[in-house]
Amino acid sequence: MIKIERQTKETDIVVELNVDGKGKSDIDTGIGFFDHMLESFAKHARFDVKVVCKGDIHVDFHHSVEDVGIVLGQAFYQSVFPVHNKERFGDAVIVMDESAVECAIDLSNRPFLVYEVDIDGTIGQFDAELIEEFFRAFVFNARITAHIIQKRGKNRHHLAEASFKALAVALRRALAEDKRAGMPSTKGVL
């Protein structure tokens, strides 16, 4: 279990992460829809995740969403690197009713995000553009490469949830044990 705390003038965050968990979550960011996405992420990655965030949500949700991504990404990095005896690559296509989102990842230690999901507007009170902000913060702090691409769909909630689940399942698959892999790079280091 990795525990990271981060305090700024905008947020006060505590994250606990066990990547070898069972998908249990205890999420409290004060942002209902975001909590739902993080719970779904934990469940489908099979990570045990605890997140407590006290943020300036009276201003808007941006600082809380981005900062949770930063801290969760840092916890993931500390949990996984250096990568050894793992598949390293993972992918998933997740459908939710009319929506389908694909995610492919590489535990590369080279952060890069391709995000091509067309979600404009709001989901309840949640600004949908914050989904990309979360993924960018997570990916860059986890030091992974992720491509999250919409295959079809138009319902904002479905696209968002399929995106979080696709990342979760791709991560679970990339973390699958492969004792033959050793250091899964021809460079000898990731």
Blueprint of the fold:
Elements: E1 2-7, E2 11-18, E3 25-28, H1 32-45, E4 48-55, H2 62-80, E5 89-96, E6 99-106, E7 112-116, E8 122-123, E9 126-127, H3 129-142, E10 145-152, H4 156-174
Parallel strand pairs: 3-4, 7-10
Antiparallel strand pairs: 1-2, 2-4, 5-6, 6-10, 8-9
Pathway: Amino-acid biosynthesis; L-histidine biosynthesis; L-histidine from 5-phospho-alpha-D-ribose 1-diphosphate: step 6/9
InterPro entries: IGPD_sf, ImidazoleglycerolP_deHydtase, ImidazoleglycerP_deHydtase_CS, Ribosomal_Su5_D2-typ_SF
Catalytic activity: D-erythro-1-(imidazol-4-yl)glycerol 3-phosphate = 3-(imidazol-4-yl)-2-oxopropyl phosphate + H2O
- Quick one: overall form? globular
Main beta sheet strand tally, sense and closure: 4 strands, mixed
What percent of the residues sit in helical stretches (DSSP H or I)?
25-40%
End-to-end Cα distance:
22 Å
Largest beta sheet: what is the strand line-up?
A: 1-2-4-3
User: Strand portion, in percent?
Assistant: 25-35%
Question: In sequence order, what are the helices and strands, one letter per element?
Answer: EEEHEHEEEEEHEH
Helix-and-strand structural type:
alpha+beta
The CATH C-level class name: Alpha Beta
Query: How many helices in DSSP terms?
Result: 4
Q: Which CATH architecture is right?
A: 2-Layer Sandwich
- Rg: 16 Å
Number of strands: 10
How would you name the CATH homologous superfamily? Imidazole glycerol phosphate dehydratase, domain 1
CATH domain topology: Ribosomal Protein S5, domain 2
- Unreliable stretches covering 5 or more consecutive residues: none
* Average pLDDT taken over every residue: 96
Number of domains: 1
